[in-house]
Amino acid sequence: MSLFFLMLGKTLPLYFNVLIGYLASKKLGVERESIASLLIYVIGPVVVFFATVSVKIDLALALFPLLLFILSSVLAFVVYYSCRKYWQDGTGNILAFTAGTGNTGFFGIPLAMVLLPSHLADIYVFAVLSSLLYESSTGFYVTAKGKLTTTDVLRKILRLPPLYAFLLALVFNLFGLEIPRVLFEYGSYFKGAYGILGMMILGMGLSGLKDGGHLDWKFINLSLVFKFILWPLLMFGLIALDHYILHYLNPEFYIVAIIFALVPMAGNTVTLAVLLKTKPEKASIAVFISTVIAILYIPLMLVLTGLLPFPVPLDFNKL
After folding, report:
1. Is the predicted pLDDT of residue 5 greater than 80, yes or no?
2. CB within 8 A of 32, min separation 6: which ones?
3. Which of 29, 83, 122, 260 has the greatest count of CB atoms below 10 A from its CB?
4. What value does the mean pLDDT of the chain take?
5. Is the pTM of this model over 0.90?
6. CB within 8 Å of 37: residues ≥ 6 apart
7. What CA–CA distance (Å, rounded) separates 270 from 279?
8. What is the C-alpha separation between 195 and 43, in angstroms, rounded?
9. Which residue ranges does UniProt annotate as crossing the membrane (predicted)?
10. Using an 8 Å Cβ cutoff, are 187 and 259 in contact?
């Protein structure tokens, strides 16, 4: 019960940001398209850069987000080619995007900081780069496919700043190039803005429901199944494979992978849907429902995780 109240206290501020975004759109006329552009083209790249230069990269750590990126991309393409026939309006594209990712940043990073020791929280933040790269490449591709030609989609992907921010930060990290401390402090402001605006845009998407959005239960149910059933099953399977056969990952990585799999649907589902004009209202209501479900779902799954037949280094008695 104490874990439930801990989670509730940490997640409630996220819902206030959703409400603020809804009111800003409805009452103040704030345009969600402008916020989406800020997140993808300005704030996101800064967050990616400083997260990448902040961790010590070795082979195991480098391959960890790569494996998560491959898993995300495979899921996105499988869902896209399996489900696109059920909709003719771009809903299948959004479903494919959301199947490959989760709210690993806005929701997952605060969660990791609460539950994990600092060195594992840093590993989690680095793992989140796989989501940012997925959303800027494969995710963008499946979302835009059908609205744009393949050539146009690839051109837009190559113009997305997060990709270049990651490559630049990788150069700084691997060659040991130092960044002044004052710039790190400046970068921390962007992390806060990224989290706040990312949840606000969810509320802005909800404000459009009255103007033609509706509850598409097929889309919502499939999204929730992919996020809350398929992702955990796949992650637990990969962890078991490593523990019993491969012996590649440090067991401490297991809990990082589990938290990565348990977070609700990605807030950037709405961001990209707004930017590409692909059913942002449907995306908003599905993301909101998944975020509400996560209040109970995550504490329950974390408790059940303690019963797994392989070690998960998380002592719930210390929370």
Report:
1. no
2. 25, 201, 204, 205, 207, 274, 280
3. 260
4. 81
5. no
6. 275
7. 9
8. 10
9. 6-23, 35-53, 59-82, 94-117, 123-142, 163-183, 189-207, 219-241, 253-276, 283-310
10. no
CATH 3.10.450 fits 2-318, yes or no: no
Q: Which helix (H) or strand (E) holds 173?
A: helix 161-174
Token pair in block for residue 204: 């802005």
Residue 108 reports pLDDT greater than 70: yes
The three-state (H, E, C) secondary structure of 56-72, written as one string: CCCHHHHHHHHHHHHHH
Output the DSSP codes for 126-163.
Answer: HHHHHHHHHHHTHHHHHHHBTTB-HHHHHHHHHT-HHH
Query: Following DSSP, what letter does each residue of 254-315 receive, concatenated?
Result: HHHHHHHHHS-S-THHHHHHHHTTS-HHHHHHHHHHHHHHHHHHHHHHHHHHTTSSS-----
Residue 70 is predicted with a pLDDT of: 94
Domain ranges of the chain: 2-318
> Distance of CA 298 to CAs 1, 68, 194, 238, 248, Å?
13, 20, 23, 19, 27
Q: Is pLDDT above 70 for 218?
A: yes
**What's the pLDDT tens digit per position in 261-285?**
999 998 778 777 776 676 777 788 8
